[in-house]
Every structure is written in structure tokens, then in C-alpha cells.
Write a structure and sequence with these properties.
Helices cover about 40% and strands about 25% of the residues. With about 120 residues, the chain is of the alpha+beta class. The protein has one domain (about 5-110). Strands 4-1-3-2-5 form a five-stranded antiparallel β-sheet, sandwiched between helices. The longest helix is centred in the first third of the chain and has 12 residues, at about 15-25. The chain is globular, with a radius of gyration of 14 Å.
């Protein structure tokens, strides 16, 4: 098994679905993804969530193509439609950028916690 770096940014509206799918597809390593909030100003409410780090190359392949995601979900018995996979990946930013490079490219900032 080999690992690759991926930076994943999803719209806030799709974050619950992304969290559920990553946990179901990647197992325990997928739990706890997409909990870091983002917005264009750095203030709440968040418009996006980010997860970045090393993932298995097989999981990276799932994130690269909605048809692959759909097929893997079907094989794993996960109830999701191809349209939902297309919407999730179509609205998300998946790259091998370092997190702050991806944030700069998308004009996003970490949401500051209340003091």
C-alpha cells in the first residue's frame, strides 16, 4: 500500500455527506475529516471545510473520478447515487497542493475560533 498527499476542500453544504462517505469508504482513517472550517473572510459562518494529508492511493483514485466513487460505493454496499457522487466531486477541490496554497488559490481562510 502506498500513500499520496491530497488536499480536499468541500462546500459546507456538502460536508456532512463528504464526512459520511469518507468514513464509510476509508474506514477509521476517514473518520474526522472535514472538520476545519473555512470562509473567504476567516469569519463564521463557514462556507467550506478542508481536510489535508496522506491518504491511500486507492482512496485517492476514488476522489479523482465520480464514476469510480460510485462503483466503489456500490461494491461496499453504500447507498449513494452517481448524481450525488458527481455533485460532491464537481463542487469540491481535490488537489495535491499544500493546504495554504490551496486556500490562497481559492481565496479561502481558516475560520478563526471565538476568543
Amino acid at each position: 500500500m502506498s500513500y499520496v498527499h491530497r488536499c480536499l476542500i468541500v462546500p459546507a453544504a456538502l460536508a456532512p455527506q463528504a464526512r459520511l462517505l469518507t468514513e464509510q469508504l476509508a474506514g477509521p482513517p476517514g473518520a474526522g475529516m472535514f472538520v476545519t472550517p473555512l470562509s473567504s473572510t476567516g469569519a463564521a459562518p463557514p462556507t467550506h471545510y478542508i481536510s489535508s494529508g496522506l491518504i491511500e492511493d486507492t482512496f485517492a483514485a476514488v476522489l479523482a473520478d465520480s464514476q469510480t466513487m460510485f462503483s466503489v460505493c456500490q461494491q461496499a454496499g453504500i447507498s449513494v447515487t452517481l448524481t450525488a457522487c458527481q455533485a460532491l466531486l464537481g463542487a469540491s477541490d481535490v488537489s495535491d497542493d499544500q493546504p495554504f496554497d490551496a486556500l490562497a488559490r481559492l481565496g479561502l481562510r481558516l475560520v478563526a475560533e471565538d476568543a
